[in-house]
Amino acid sequence: MSDALDYRPFAPVLPPARARALPWATVLGASALTAVPVVATLPLLPPLGLLMLLTWRLLARFALRRWAAAPLGFFDDLVSGQPLGSAVLAWSLCFLVIDLVEQRFPDRDFGQDWLIAAGLVAATLLLGRLVAAPLAAPVAPVLAVQIAVSVLLFPLFVRIVAWIDRRRGQSEG
Description:
The protein is an all-alpha fold and 173 residues long. Helix content is 65%, strand content 0%. The chain is globular and about 60 Å long.
């Protein structure tokens, strides 16, 4: 069956307040997911909140306001244990970089979005490493693997956000 058969123009949609809150809730949920205790020998858990935030910003441009990065980054700082304000700064800078890229390249494809997200995730993790760990700490191999895992998870987050964004305009049930 094609998607055209599933189209229901008169189906009730989510109330506007719930539709606007859904991107916020998914970013907050992804940030909170990093607080789940997981036994691991290496800290390879990607920054799920950042990936969700970047995906919403790149895929659904107007789902989150430009100022949304600061409060969402503050929540991520509280949950993740990073120094307070590090995600606020890094996530706000990510939004500024995306705005600059959108001015230069308004029409992008998935590969370009993936490249943008990869660069921003790598820069954010490197900035977090400079803020949170001493420069003499041997974390480069672990950080490289964490960046690779984060970059490889981006397409999964795109699928999730696209599915949620599609459901935001459809009926609740």
